[in-house]
Write a structure and sequence with these properties.
Number of helices: 4
Strand order of the largest sheet: 3-2-1-4-5
Radius of gyration: 28 Å
Shape: elongated
Strand content: 35-45%
CATH superfamily of the largest domain: Winged helix-like DNA-binding domain superfamily/Winged helix DNA-binding domain
Distance between the termini: 80 Å
Largest sheet: 5 strands, antiparallel
Number of domains: 4
CATH topology of the largest domain: Arc Repressor Mutant, subunit A
Oligomer: single chain
Order of helices and strands: EEEEEEEEEEHEEEEEHEHHEE
Helix content: 10-25%
Structural class: alpha+beta
CATH architecture of the largest domain: Orthogonal Bundle
Length: 286
């Protein structure tokens, strides 16, 4: 049976019951669940063969993209530190495992539930199906080169390679991206989906990306904090302004004086607050 598992082939229906057809190939019998397509004994059907978690030999006409020699994305469903990562590739009653040997050395960088991995399949000598991670060559073959016009564009991508030099990812629109350690607050996990922005394009077409927010986005985050504190204060004012001491601002808001000044400058420009000597106050509030 080993040579049939993980493969697409045509099999012959030899019998049926209320729930299943029995199909056969090379003298090996598989179960094909009855669905919308009706068949008769003697029909030839094309499908994909695997062994489910109940150790049943199964044949399905819903052919997954992930197969032996064919890569596709699957979704992580579970993690076992003593075994590896379980991935859903669309099979009924079966997730495939990517071995712990293929996982990062640091456990905190292993994928979590909901992350995505690009994998194909392999069958071991005990007829077990394993997931095989795509390597950098596979991702490069799927990708296209970036252009200078993409500067400052937002991108969503899936992390596929973790290196000391930085993080590589494949964007949803099929560009290779690289994140230098200086352009992130933490190292992303293998398989994690991240939001990034283009900060440059290398001569080989790889996008240089940043996981840090733009300056105005950081200002908005700080401004939102200040607005929330003003709204929650009974008088809608706070005893701080752009001349307040840095340590006072740090103690009150947890941000630097530079961040505070940019944030209140943003709020003043939007006419959300007003500033008088020694304090800031929400506008249109008594």
């Amino acid at each position: 049976m080993n040579e049939l598992l993980g493969q697409v082939f045509t099999a012959l229906i030899i019998d049926e019951n209320d729930r299943e057809y029995l199909v056969q190939k090379n003298g090996i019998t598989f179960r094909l669940q009855k669905g919308e397509t009706k068949h008769a004994i003697g029909d030839a059907v094309e499908g994909f063969a695997y062994v489910d978690q109940n150790h049943h030999a199964v044949f399905t006409e819903t052919i997954p993209q992930v197969r032996i020699g064919n890569f596709g994305f699957g979704t992580v469903t579970d993690v076992r530190r003593d075994l590896g990562v379980f991935v859903d590739i669309g099979l009924e009653n079966k997730d495939v495992v990517v071995s712990m040997d293929d996982m990062p050395a640091m456990k905190e960088l292993w994928p979590k539930r909901g992350d995505r991995l690009l994998i194909s399949l392999r069958i071991d000598e005990k007829e077990r199906i394993w997931g095989v991670l795509a390597d950098d060559t596979q991702f490069r073959s799927m990708s296209r080169p970036g252009t200078a016009e993409m500067q400052n564009e937002d991108k969503t991508g899936t992390v596929y390679l973790l290196k000391v030099a930085g993080t590589y990812l494949l964007t949803d629109d099929l560009y290779i991206g690289f994140v230098h350690p200086s352009e992130r607050y933490r190292e992303p996990r293998l398989g994690e989906v991240v939001q990034a922005r283009v900060i440059g394009v290398r001569p080989d077409g790889v996008l240089n990306l940043s996981l840090k927010p733009r300056a105005y986005e950081m200002i908005n985050d700080d401004a939102a904090l200040i607005l929330t504190m003003l709204e929650r204060n009974a008088t809608h004012e706070l005893p701080y302004w752009d001349k307040s001491a840095p340590d006072e601002i740090k103690a009150a808001f947890g941000i630097s004086k530079g961040q505070f000044k940019r944030a209140i400058g943003h709020l003043l420009k939007e006419k959300r607050i007003e500033q008088t000597e020694g304090k800031i106050r929400l506008k249109n509030k008594s």
